[in-house]
Amino acid sequence: xxxxxxxxxxHIDHGKSKLVEALTxxxxxxxxxxxxxxxxxxxxFAFLDLEDVRLGFVDVPGHERFVRNMLAGVGGIDFVLLxxxxxxxxxxxxxxxxxxxxxxxxxRGLVVLTKADLVDRDVLxxxxxxxxxxxxxxxxxxxxxxxxxxKTGEGLDTLKQALLQMARQVPAKDPxxxxxxxxxxxxxxxxxxxxxxxxxxxxxxRAEDEVELFPSQRRVRIRGVQSAGQKVEQxxxxxxxxxxxxxxxxxxxxxxxxxxxxxRFRPTNRLDARxxxxxxxxxxxxxxxxxxxxxxxETIAEIILxxxxxxxxGASALAQLxxxxxxxxxxxxxxxxxxxSPVVTIGGGVVLDALAPRHRQRELPQVREFLQTLEHGSxxxxxxALVRRHPEGMTLPELxxxxxxxxxxxxQVASALERTAELRVFAGGAGEEAVILPADAFAAxxxxxxxxxxxxxxxxxxxxxxxxxxxxxxxxxxxxxxxxRAALEELCRRGELSVAGDLVARxxxxxxxxxxxxxxxxxxxxxxxxxGLAVPAVAEVLGRLPVEPKxxxxxxxxxxxxxxxxxxxxxxxxHREAIAHLRALLADYKAKNGEQxxxxxxxxxxxxSRKYAIPLLEYLDRMGVTRRMPTHRVIL
Length: 636
Hints:
- The chain is α+β, with helices and mostly antiparallel strands and 636 residues long.
- The chain has 4 domains: 2-169, 3-Layer(aba) Sandwich (Rossmann fold); 180-260, Beta Barrel (Elongation Factor Tu (Ef-tu), domain 3), CATH 2.40.30; 268-364, Translation factors (Elongation Factor Tu (Ef-tu), domain 3), CATH 2.40.30.10; 520-635, Winged helix-like DNA-binding domain superfamily/Winged helix DNA-binding domain (Arc Repressor Mutant, subunit A, Orthogonal Bundle).
- Helix content is 35%, strand content 28%.
- It is built from 19 helices and 35 strands.
- Strands 7, 8, 9, 11, 12, 13, 15 and 16 form an 8-stranded antiparallel sheet that branches.
- The longest helix has 21 residues, at 439-459.
- The protein is elongated, with a radius of gyration of 35 Å.
């Protein structure tokens, strides 16, 4: 069955709720105050099955005081029923609701003239002409205008056929998209706990799924799923959905929050957008405060114009919106702006960059160019523009959060750009994410690495190479580990650099020790190898060499970098064979005596004094061989 969401719009008391009840048999006015006052105050919902289509009606309030409630329901609808009472024609809230539908870019709809039984045919025809003139130039131009009466049933069958025909024109939604459900109601049910409802914008959800609650980013579990009042195994995009949440108090959930696929998105307090003012609005000044409505969320926003200092009525501009409370939005999401005071609808817009940084004045030309690419560019152009603004590289999860695309879509677009040499894609290792980098940034990184290695060789002719971490800190400190590793591997494949253990050198680079230096190196190694665990002082060993102290220190560093010698502390250096022998002693001790190792037992085992024992035990703690306890060590 195909699921389609239909929203009502129109002035107060123009018969929206009565029309929905006549079509579905369900009174959408659920609140006692609504029954008493005879008006819709909050959102109401009802369902109608027509052949292979299930229509979910979202009935919204028409009173100007409840437009904010109307806005919470109109997002996510597939088409709208613009309701105009035949005995009153177009009224102020008809205009405001219609403006909201246009600003939200609702693509299609029908016009329903209600209360047709209250007027004669001439008046009905006059209202029809007025409505045709009212919708001219909009998405409803040429749409059917159907006269109905909820009281007599006139026109309802014709309306149902028109609804079915329009529902079949609605494009099918892709359940494979990332799950998002803006919450429009939250309540508690005895025996079930917290229940939330909303229109499922994208993706699908099942019982026992883990989802993320925004903006708090708390992970919650779905205990049960309902749609149209019936328990279902899965709800998919386009359905009105009720979800029973496990382990969440009602006080923790409210209208305006969003449930979404876990680990995919990030809430934002700042977004870049294209905004447009209604022709009826007053000019909008830079830094003006407005009411921001998106989906079911509402907050205050400060408008930072990125083009000029004032926006004229009927005009559009790029702007940054700084929100007082975080929301979850994605590029392409539409929103409504209402004047701060008095509160009337003045415009709307579309999100271009949901996770925008603050912009400096001197950056604005580049920012505008970037946002225009996000607004009008192809997917290849959008991805290239995003990555170019992050020369340190972007991971797939970061790009999902910035675009809302699926990972395989990002990979596909990135691969196409890699073939044109615009981007480079690097697959992450175990526990790492793939990273996408501008090709020119990667070329610059390779150049910096080569230059850093050359500089190291010039400054340290007696050292075989620079350590990986030292090289990264010099030439790639701001880049991700996987990007640095990929650049290093590529330079090695090209035969420009070589890696031996932890050391990086120019390919073919060799240390040319003089005979005197080679002899000194042998003397140092021999002195520490013979000493076992009772090693001499470093200064004592170096003082006996036939080379000056500065060269002696560099020769010692060669042995340390080659890991022939191991530095346990600033004063103590051991030969690697002595450390290996110590590990073997500990393993044998553990096998015979258990894992507990008091310091006296360690001294007895190794035959060394406290001078050596304590630094050696601290070294073993650092290496994960032992673990320090209050009274002893534990051999791991």
